[in-house]
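To illustrate the input format used throughout this study, we show a single complete record. The first block contains the structure-token representation of the backbone; no residue identities are included at this stage. The design step must infer an amino acid for every position from geometry alone.
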């Protein structure tokens, strides 16, 4: 191949852009032609070598990005765990109405009656009440005139004070010796159900009950199990017949509304009291 053609191809060859066949012809020619070889060497020396890129800054950037990524993941994970602890352990939400099941039964103590009264030995402000069981089939008369109670023709004695016999006053209430049992169950996949129960008036069995119940499904982690339901996840509540008068009710607070249970109607349905 002529020197003129080779010299025209040298720039392409030096840039590494020549085809394989062309490169072979150029190399063969400059090996034999000293003049073209000198031009090639001058041309090659004139092409500056590019410096190798410094990759250290890029490594530092990648390391910083990885550190920032793991830090972000750690913050998100901590936030999720904190929110989960608050929602499922520390402050669990109320159960929904659809998960609440209410069942009721009655339980007879001895088949007789109970006379509930406030002891004449207790000052009015203390409000302490007592009860006396009266056998089944007894004839009971509350004598307001003489402020006493007659059972089968005899005064109902409630004890002694300073060797003096004390009789039950006539301001009490005679009720069946029965208990209304209300079971409140919570259907949930959680291992524990925290409960909060309030019963007013708990100390006065002569007034209709007003009770409030809250059930909160939760994880057992760091829970006071004395404040959680057992494996059956049922709350067993009992109300005496005297507490099931008109107006007696049980309120179950739920996330989507309250469940109102009329204890008076349940007691009638169970035959504990008459309408």
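Output of the design step:
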């Amino acid at each position: 191949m002529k020197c003129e053609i080779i010299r025209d191809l040298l720039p392409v060859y030096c840039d590494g852009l020549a085809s394989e066949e062309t490169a072979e012809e150029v190399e063969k020619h400059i090996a034999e032609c000293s003049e073209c070889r000198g031009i090639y060497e001058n041309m090659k020396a004139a092409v500056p070598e590019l410096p190798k890129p410094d990759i250290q800054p890029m490594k530092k950037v990648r390391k910083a990005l990885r550190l920032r990524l793991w830090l972000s993941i750690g913050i998100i994970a901590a936030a999720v765990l904190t929110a989960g602890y608050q929602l499922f352990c520390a402050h669990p939400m109320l159960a929904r109405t659809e998960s609440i099941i209410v069942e009721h039964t009655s339980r007879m103590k001895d088949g007789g009656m109970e006379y509930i009264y406030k002891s004449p030995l207790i000052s009015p402000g203390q409000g302490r009440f007592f009860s006396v069981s009266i056998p089944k089939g007894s004839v009971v008369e509350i004598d307001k005139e003489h402020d006493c109670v007659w059972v089968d023709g005899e005064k109902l004695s409630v004890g002694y004070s300073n060797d003096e016999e004390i009789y039950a006053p006539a301001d009490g209430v005679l009720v069946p010796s029965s208990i209304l049992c209300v079971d409140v169950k919570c259907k949930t996949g959680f291992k524990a159900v925290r409960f909060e129960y309030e019963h007013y008036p708990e100390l006065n069995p002569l007034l209709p009950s007003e009770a409030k119940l809250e059930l909160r499904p939760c994880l057992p982690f760091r829970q006071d199990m004395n404040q959680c339901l057992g494996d059956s996840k049922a709350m067993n509540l009992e109300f005496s017949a005297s507490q099931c008068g008109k107006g007696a009710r049980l309120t179950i607070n739920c996330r989507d509304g309250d469940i109102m249970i009329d204890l008076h109607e349940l007691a009638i349905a169970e035959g504990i009291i008459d309408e």
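Structural context for interpreting the output: The radius of gyration is 47 Å. The first strand starts at residue 100 and ends at 118.
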